[in-house]
Amino acid sequence: MRLPRFTHSIRFRLTALYSLLLFALAGSALVVTYVAVERSTDPKPITESYEVELRKRGYDGRERTIDTVDMAAVEEVESAVNFRTLQTLRNYSGLALGGLFLASLGIGWVLSGRALRPVGRIARTAREIQATDLSRRIDLGGYRDELRDLADTIDSMLGRLDSAFAAQRQLIDDASHELRTPLAIIRANLDATLAVPGTGSEERDRAVAVIDRATVRMSRLVEDLLATARREAEGFDDAAVDLAEVAREAGEEFAAVAGERGVAIEYALGSGLVASGDHDALRRAVANLLSNAARLAPADTVVTVGAGNIDGWLWIAVADRGPGIDSGDREKVFDRFWRRETGGRDRGERRTGLGLAIVRQIVESHGGRAAVHSTVGAGSTFVLWLPADGVEGPVPIEVNPLVKA
């Protein structure tokens, strides 16, 4: 015989268990009481009786028999009373146990429902959560019991899943942003050099070298983005990197792009600037700074790319003569998805606000810091500070090295 569906629920099983346990405890208590009373009173029915004549003396002094009755001894009367008392106790105990069993079923059903109410809330919230919206939380209040711990554990799991999905979305945005830059470099060099008849072999060779670096950069993009997505991950290949060479290569990549906007690139590079890190990742960071500088700098101005050493800290800086950044926005400029209004300068371009966030990620993954110095209307200088071997002093983050140089 197939049992009804509700008998499969935890609530029903808890109710049955509660009722059976309560019934067993109450029954055991009554049995012990019954046995104790029985052994202490020796109850039994009347088995022997005596015939007694009731006689009365008359007026004449003679006794006459009025009636004859059966009587028992006092001990047997007491035993009979105890016997009837035990019978009454047994009968009422059976009725009490039956009523207690029914009451325990009702009480167990109510109590188990209250105890399992948080489970229902957890189940409803889990059903409502979708992969596209993991912001919902159970937020179970009350005492710190096992169900509260379960709900908090699920909330923590949802938080980790939400962060993982957000990281995936950011990875897609980072990839689209990063792929746009090497494609723009390739297109600009093709249009400015290789597609123009009469271009000299030296210029063609330089354009081919730039395009080759851009294609290599695109081929390594996915692996590098996975590394930059985790700040503490060992995602870069540590090697000796000449920062002056990194800065010059990034400048050469953007020379054609800046030239199309009427912007020139000049260099202020020191020597012996060797750091430990990933050459391609650092060039990507400088290239992102140059991309913004070439985009925002007015025509017929100069973008300066510099590199040097101050107090044991190596630096690469990119300075432009653009609109500058308000003091209130300088703390947010390296945040993901932050975009400053440019008064229509970039209207029609879809920018994600990830370029500078990637710059900070790369620099911090190398143990350095990124800083910005800006004056509204006079331009901005972005500085990447990287530690030299054995450096112990604080990062001179307040120093604008191009001004000091």
What can be said about this structure in brief?
The chain has helices spanning 10-41, 74-115, 117-128, 146-194, 201-219, 221-228, 243-260, 279-296, 355-365, 401-404, and strands spanning 50-57, 63-71, 239-242, 264-269, 274-277, 302-310, 313-319, 369-375, 379-387. It is α+β, with helices and mostly antiparallel strands. Among the domains are: 5-48 and 70-127; 235-404, Histidine kinase-like ATPase, C-terminal domain (Heat Shock Protein 90, 2-Layer Sandwich).
3D architecture notes:
One of its GO terms (cellular component) is plasma membrane. Its EC number is 2.7.13.3. With 405 residues, the chain is of the alpha+beta class. Among the domains are: 102 residues; 170 residues, Histidine kinase-like ATPase, C-terminal domain (Heat Shock Protein 90), CATH 3.30.565. Helices cover 53% and strands 16% of the residues. The protein contains ten helices and nine strands. The strands form three sheets. Strands 4-6-7-9-8 form a five-stranded mixed beta sheet. A two-stranded antiparallel sheet has the order 1-2. Helix 7 runs parallel beside helix 8. It is rod-shaped and about 170 Å long. About 3% of the residues have low confidence.
